[in-house]
């Protein structure tokens, strides 16, 4: 199927204002270079305002018919998630999936997809606080409590709160390429990809300002010198820390290891160059810090599932 162009988000009673902000920000316009998607909020009762989790009523003009035409259908989280939506909502979601739409939800919006039966036999995630509840209510769903998002092809689910950004940026990256996902994340001043799972956020230590400032400077320096080897010892030296202290501080601040962070940064950089330039794979490998095209290919196949040249063909835009 072609990459999605139209997006419809179902807003349940008690819909989260943060969730609305996330999907509107990611799929809305981002200047002349990226005008955004055909995006709409919808509800089963467009004749009356939708209550939100902040108590502020929200006027939503779109009805469930918007779900019938959208390429991407999102079920937003709501405060009343313990009570399943009415039959009309569940039928509309099931019909959207049956006709071939990409369906996604994050946080407790996952409960809506589960109530529609779309997650039976699938892996899925939700906010870690409600993972056990999801598993007990829907035993046919394989709940992954620690994942930031779970991609099952045409059904994608995400963790709670700000992990909605991770889910939406993943959908952009998967369907439209790393260049667009990176551009949108830069516009929102967010990382385009986060490694790690939800466990890193359960008891995060209080940051020390001086160390965090030095760490941020080192990460910026690493991005600008991606073509260099960048051993952890050098990063630690620039942060004025021991290797052990640097690794511990790095993991606390980013949720992943220096090695994994650099690997993802190099692969993301390679993706963008494959999509936006005609550079040979050998030159791309050099620019992102791999010793040879063979090393880049090995990492690309292992982490992305396809060789670099196949990835480039997948995102070649024809006029």
- The number of distinct β-strands equals 8
- Envelope shape: globular
Name the beta content range: 5-15%
Strand order of the largest sheet: 2-1-3-4-8-7
Structural class: alpha/beta
Query: Overall mean pLDDT score?
Result: 88
> Nearest-angstrom radius of gyration?
21 Å
Helix % is 40-55%
Number of continuous helical runs = 14
**Oligomer class:** single chain
Please give the largest β-sheet: 6 strands, mixed
Head-to-tail CA distance between termini: 18 Å
Order of helices and strands: EHEHEHEHEHEEEHHHHHHHHH
Unreliable segments of 5+ consecutive residues:
199-209
Description:
With 319 residues, the chain is an alpha/beta fold. The chain is built from 14 helices and eight strands. Strand 3 (72-75), helix 3 (87-98) and strand 4 (102-106) form a beta-alpha-beta unit. The model is unreliable at 199-209 (pLDDT under 50).
């Amino acid at each position: 199927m072609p990459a999605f162009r139209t997006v419809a988000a179902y807003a349940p009673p008690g819909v989260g204002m943060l969730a609305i902000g996330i999907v509107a920000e990611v799929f809305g316009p981002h200047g002349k270079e990226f005008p955004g998607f055909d995006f709409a909020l919808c509800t089963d009762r467009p004749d009356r305002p939708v209550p939100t989790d902040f108590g502020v009523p929200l006027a939503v003009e779109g009805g469930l018919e918007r779900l019938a035409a959208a390429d991407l259908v999102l079920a937003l989280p709501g405060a009343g998630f313990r009570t399943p939506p009415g039959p009309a909502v569940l039928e509309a979601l099931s019909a959207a999936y049956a006709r071939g739409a990409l369906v996604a939800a994050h946080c407790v919006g996952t409960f809506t997809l589960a109530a529609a039966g779309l997650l039976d036999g699938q892996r899925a995630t939700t906010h870690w606080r409600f993972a056990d509840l999801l598993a007990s209510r829907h035993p046919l769903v394989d709940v992954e409590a620690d994942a930031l998002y779970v991609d099952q092809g045409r059904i994608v689910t995400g963790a709670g709160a700000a992990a909605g950004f991770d889910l939406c940026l993943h959908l952009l990256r998967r369907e439209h390429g790393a260049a667009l996902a990176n551009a949108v994340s830069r516009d929102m001043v967010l990382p385009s990809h986060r490694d790690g799972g939800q466990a890193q956020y359960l008891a995060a230590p209080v940051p020390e300002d001086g160390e965090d400032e030095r760490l941020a400077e080192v990460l910026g320096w690493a991005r600008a010198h991606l073509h260099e080897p960048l051993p952890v010892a050098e990063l630690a030296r620039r942060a004025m820390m021991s290797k052990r202290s640097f690794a511990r501080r790095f993991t606390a601040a980013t949720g992943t290891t220096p090695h994994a962070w650099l690997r993802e940064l190099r692969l993301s950089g390679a993706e963008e160059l494959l999509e936006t330039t005609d550079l040979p794979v050998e030159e791309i490998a050099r620019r992102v810090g791999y010793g040879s095209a063979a090393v880049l290919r090995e990492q690309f196949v292992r982490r992305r599932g396809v060789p670099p040249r196949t990835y480039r063909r997948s995102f070649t835009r024809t006029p």
